[in-house]
Amino acid sequence: MKFFVTCIMTAMLMSVALSDVVCASGRGDETVVIGQADIASMQASDTPDLLNRIPGVKATETSVSIRGSYQVKVLVDGRSINDPTSYSGAVKWSMIPVERIGKIVVHKGRGGVAFGDNTEGGVIEITTRQSSRFGGTVDLHAGNHGAKNGEITLQGGIDRFSATLSAGAREYDGFTVNDDLKERRAGLRLDFKGDSGTELFLSGDYSKQKKGLRGYPETRTPNSRMNYEDSSMLFGARFNGLDSRSWYRETTTRNSDSDRDFFSQLRVKSVGQTLKRKVSLPLLGELQAGAGFEWQQASGTAIDEQEEEQGWLLFSKRFSQSNGPWSAVAGIRGNLYSTFSNTVNPELGVTWSRKPWKIELNSGSSSNLPTFRQRYNETSTTRSNPDLQMERAMKTGLALSFTPSEKLNWELSLFRRDITDRITYVRAVDNTGRYENFGEVIYQGLESSLTWKPAAWLELTPSYLYLHARNEETGLWLPAIPFHTLSGQIALKPFSRLSIRADLKYTGQAYSRTDNVETLPGYGLVDLRVDYRPGAMQLYVDVDNLLDREYLYVDGYDAPPREWEVGMNYTF
């Protein structure tokens, strides 16, 4: 508690010390920015579908990775939505339906200074849509395997006040035994805009999910169930150049299996505060400064009540050459932990830009903290390890882009991540295991993408990712990580109201076991979507796995056969 109070005082003192400094807002270079118009044109069925259009990003219903790393922090209006009760920071994308998204910023392989821990792969910032216009959207769609989904968003404002209310429900019977899902969610946001740029908002979200856990094809688990419940509140404020976020969140996961007489529960509560603004200091000039703290409490069937706190302080500065092609951003972040060793993480980015070329070089470090579940949870096959320590990651990247016109863009990126004390699940001879800090892992590879619009009605966006991921102590390749991934989208718009998009993807072979004895074969997929927009209404047909391929995901789970949905979206 003493540590917690110290963090609060640090944040409060910093807000007072900075409150009289007047400065302009600004940010460093961002890797990928998708605005509201881009989101509308991409015609994605959900948020994972939208993210999967970005080269190097792979999103599923409950996870996201960037260039092979699942250590990706996802923020909505400045608050993390990663699941604190999961093994590896899973994401419940249903909490942020695509209809609510106004902007997405993806930082690949960077963000350790601005966003803190668990950013080895990168950061995804999502900003929700806000409007003072009275109106909303309704989205309804249904498909095979008992898929049903409904979303509604209402918004409006009077004078300086505005509000957004959203709710949704989703059901799915599944394509095999115990693959069903039922979900409900609701959210409310209130906004106020005052004089001199003052902005205040308060948002609350609640979601509840029940689903079956089908298991692997060779070992089905017909009675394994999971219940997930999440509630949160976020208060944001901007005034006098100060940006503040305060949040509370409570997440509960329950797992059961009547065949094994098994039940477990894990509940995590968190309270946090961040403060950011620009300051002017002697000799250093104008800096972006920030401070914050977070308190967490975990409890459950296999965990005695555990409390942890952390605080941080960060500074970053942007340098630019007057009328020249060079610019740079340098930053440093200090992290204080009640449970782990304190860390200092620097980050540097240098950019040279002269049309049509742009070159970016970045390097930095970050920390990946073990989750409560990895440290304390126990099952019939998994033992706890309270002494599990953090991973340390060193990241370096080089990116080259060529944009001779608005119709053509080519990008090439080289990257490397060195991870020490990697957290690995180690299995014993009795088939029980636990998470341990084990070895050094190097991820390195290249990513290339092309966006070409040869005609007003045609757009082509192919991309390629090569990923080399190996344990340097054993010399073995990491499982569930394909060496090659090819993808491409073909977008046709033969008429103003009609659009057709085909998504093609090939995922190369990957090792299925840590001993590299077995491999999973590669597979190719084709997805198709057709949209027709008669005025304010949008009608669509979405088909996944159009060729009805049988294949396994790289983690060994069987993928669904051909699935289709028909739906409508109405804006009023």
Overview of the molecule:
The strands form six sheets. The protein has a 22-stranded antiparallel beta barrel. It has a five-stranded mixed β-sheet with strand order 1-6-7-4-5. With 572 residues, the chain is mainly beta. It has helices at 2-18, 36-42, 47-51, 112-115, 372-376; strands at 32-34, 57-59, 64-66, 72-76, 79-80, 101-108, 122-128, 135-143, 148-158, 161-172, 181-193, 199-212, 215-216, 219-220, 224-239, 242-257, 262-281, 285-300, 303-320, 326-337, 343-354, 357-368, 391-405, 408-420, 423-427, 433-437, 440-455, 458-471, 484-495, 498-507, 510-511, 519-520, 523-532, 537-544, 563-571. 33% of the residues are buried. It has five helices and 35 strands. The model is unreliable at 1-30 (pLDDT under 50). The termini are far apart.
Describe the structure using short key phrases.
single chain; 572 residues; mainly beta; 22-stranded antiparallel barrel; 5-stranded mixed beta sheet; 5 helices; 35 strands; 7% helix; globular
Number of discrete helical segments: 5
Query: What would you call the shape?
Result: globular
Strand residues, percent = over 45%
Q: What percent of the residues sit in helical stretches (DSSP H or I)?
A: under 10%
Mean pLDDT across all amino acids: 88
Largest sheet: 22 strands, antiparallel, barrel
Layout of SSEs?
Elements: H1 2-18, E1 32-34, H2 36-42, H3 47-51, E2 57-59, E3 64-66, E4 72-76, E5 79-80, E6 101-108, H4 112-115, E7 122-128, E8 135-143, E9 148-158, E10 161-172, E11 181-193, E12 199-212, E13 215-216, E14 219-220, E15 224-239, E16 242-257, E17 262-281, E18 285-300, E19 303-320, E20 326-337, E21 343-354, E22 357-368, H5 372-376, E23 391-405, E24 408-420, E25 423-427, E26 433-437, E27 440-455, E28 458-471, E29 484-495, E30 498-507, E31 510-511, E32 519-520, E33 523-532, E34 537-544, E35 563-571
Parallel strand pairs: 4-7
Antiparallel strand pairs: 1-6, 2-3, 4-5, 6-7, 8-9, 8-35, 9-10, 10-11, 11-12, 12-15, 13-14, 15-16, 16-17, 17-18, 18-19, 19-20, 20-21, 21-22, 22-23, 23-24, 24-27, 25-26, 27-28, 28-29, 29-30, 30-33, 31-32, 33-34, 34-35
